[in-house]
Specification:
By secondary structure, this protein is an alpha/beta fold. It has 2 domains: about 325 residues, Rossmann fold; about 130 residues, GMP Synthetase, Chain A, domain 3 (2-Layer Sandwich), CATH 3.30.300. The protein has 19 helices and 21 strands. The strands form 4 sheets. A 12-stranded mixed beta sheet has the order 6-3-7-8-9-10-11-16-15-14-12-13. A 4-stranded mixed beta sheet has the order 2-1-5-4. Helix 2 packs across helix 7, helix 12 packs parallel to helix 14 and helix 14 packs parallel to helix 15. It is globular. The termini are far apart.
């Protein structure tokens, strides 16, 4: 009905060329957004019941699959049964099942064959292939939709729906593996952009198909430079590269001068705070921000309230969640908690079982709940991205916080950064080395280092003990040349809108590679 009404209104506006076109998309968005918003809010109160029914649905639906037979899922009645039957796994442990799917076998992890395989970069296993089923694809799409529709109701702003929007994605062109279309998740989802938004969508399909990132960025800039952009979606480092190139090309003072009707930025994938000051400086005016938490394994959460901390967990989307207290993660038998058992303020590794055939699957992310009524969380880092060379166990949330607070106090704009331990310096005690690329202004390095250290000591008691006890010396900042991190990502074949630089490493592999771009 919605699509038929849009088609009717298009015909009407074509007939009446003497009057201004009716803003039919924003007009129709209001009642539709209200329906979805009410559904989302209702789900807040049924979250735990929905999780219980999701677990039962998953176990029941997997009957007859190889995984179900291997793990006796037919005997599972309770969450305790499930924990006994299904061990925790990362991608490496799951790979034998994935390899059977890639070889063309059916009914391996889920009924039939996956609708798609989402190809994603792995840190230890090369490319990873995550199954997406016909049951799960809708939730990948509806998550982003729900974030925008909730924003519309919260703010009353629907006007952006009539302007141009960037939905940056990987190439929508698919290869076939085992007869299954395979590609980047964002490229897969691109095939499901509703028809009524296609006319608003940029960049063009042809540009989205370009694999070379630098060439693709140039084409995106050329296609959007003179358009009425109202919404831009992407991860923060990609958006900053895009903004820098736009300003260089247009000679505009800021993005709001170039796109005066830009109203909404949708971001996710990395913590926004370290990039916020430079992005806001580039924007030159207020733009509403919406955060999402998408992944190849599922669309996990989205910001349902404007300007408030925490993303609403997607509890009725074919995903059953488990949470491992981060301090027990490497134990032989780590503690496994259902959603009903989580507490606010604790760091958890997130584990999912999904209607695409993932079971007890370690996503690799750590999260922290800021509320359990409703269940809202923040992403705090990656399980494998930490520094604990001296027992400090520093995580991404802590370095993000310390740098953003220090930079804000000093009025410094940061482009990108990463941190590594220096265990055996040429002289003196060990320390943490921060590699930071600043915007084109001079930065008071010593003052910034002192402030970051202050906030790190506040945030991490183990780090504080090591500093105050004289085991570590205060952190060192190593400035990186302009564009250095882009060049580094390019050198390892990971330059692009969907690739992210690790915030932390417990070794010097990235640190050593960055020496080519250190400011001497």
């Amino acid at each position: 009905m919605y699509k038929r009404l849009i088609s009717f209104l298009k015909k009407k506006t074509k007939k009446k060329r003497s009057v201004l076109p009716l803003k039919y998309k924003s007009f129709l968005a209001r009642p539709y957004a209200s329906i979805v918003y009410n559904q989302v809010k209702k789900g807040i109160y049924t979250a735990l019941a929905d999780q219980q029914s999701t677990l039962q649905m998953l176990v029941r639906s997997a009957a007859g699959t190889a995984f179900s037979q291997d793990h006796h899922l037919s005997a599972v009645r309770t969450y305790e049964d499930f924990k006994e039957s299904v061990p925790l796994r990362d991608y490496e442990a799951f790979k034998p099942y994935i390899d059977r799917i890639k070889a063309g076998e059916q009914n391996v992890l889920w009924r039939g064959k996956p609708m798609y395989l989402a190809k994603t970069s792995g840190t230890t296993s090369g490319a990873k292939y995550i199954p997406i089923s016909k049951e799960s694809i809708a939730h990948h799409i509806n998550g982003a939709r729900n974030a925008l529709l909730c924003y519309m109701i919260e703010t009353g702003n629907t006007a952006f729906a009539d302007g141009r929007m960037i939905f940056l994605s990987g190439s929508p062109e698919m290869e076939r593996i085992g007869g299954i279309p395979t590609g980047r998740l964002s490229g897969i989802v691109n095939h499901f952009v509703p028809g009524y938004l296609r006319s608003n969508q940029l960049p063009s399909y042809e540009t989205n198909c370009i694999e070379d990132w630098e060439n693709k960025l140039e084409r995106i800039v050329a296609e959007t430079l003179h358009e009425d952009m109202t919404l831009i979606s992407g991860i923060p480092p990609w958006m900053q590269m895009y903004f820098d190139r736009l300003l260089e090309k247009s000679k505009a003072k800021n993005i709001k001068e170039l796109f005066p009707n830009l109203q909404v930025i949708v971001h996710g994938g990395v913590n926004f705070e370290p990039y916020s000051e430079k992005l806001k400086l580039s924007l030159g005016g207020h733009v509403d921000m919406i955060e999402t938490y998408p992944a190849s394994e599922g669309f996990f959460a989205f910001q349902d309230r404007v300007g408030q901390e925490g993303l609403l967990l997607n509890t009725y989307a074919g995903i059953f969640y488990e949470f491992i207290p981060a301090h027990t993660f490497n134990d032989p038998n780590p503690t496994r908690l259902s959603l009903a058992e989580v507490k606010t303020g604790e760091n958890y590794a997130m584990v999912v079982s999904t209607n695409a055939g993932l079971w007890g699957y370690n996503v690799g992310d750590t999260v922290k709940f800021v509320s359990t009524n409703p269940y809202r969380l923040v992403v705090t880092g990656r399980v494998k991205h930490f520094i604990s060379a001296f027992g400090e166990h520093v995580i991404a949330e802590e370095v993000d916080y310390a740098l953003s607070m220090a930079a804000k106090e000093l009025g410094i704009s940061v482009v990108e950064f990463t941190v590594a331990p220096m265990v055996q310096p040429h002289s003196g005690k060990p320390y943490h080395e921060w590699f930071i690329e600043f915007s084109p202004t001079s930065a008071p390095i010593s003052a910034l280092a002192a402030k970051i250290d202050h906030y790190m000591c506040q945030k991490n008691i183990y780090y504080n003990d090591l500093i105050s006890g004289g085991i570590l010396q205060p952190l060192h900042i190593t400035p990186i040349k302009q564009g250095g991190f882009v060049q580094y990502m390019k050198s390892i074949g990971k330059l692009g809108g969907q690739n992210k630089l690790p915030r932390l490493a417990n070794n010097r592999a990235i640190a050593d590679a960055l020496q080519a771009w250190v400011v001497r």
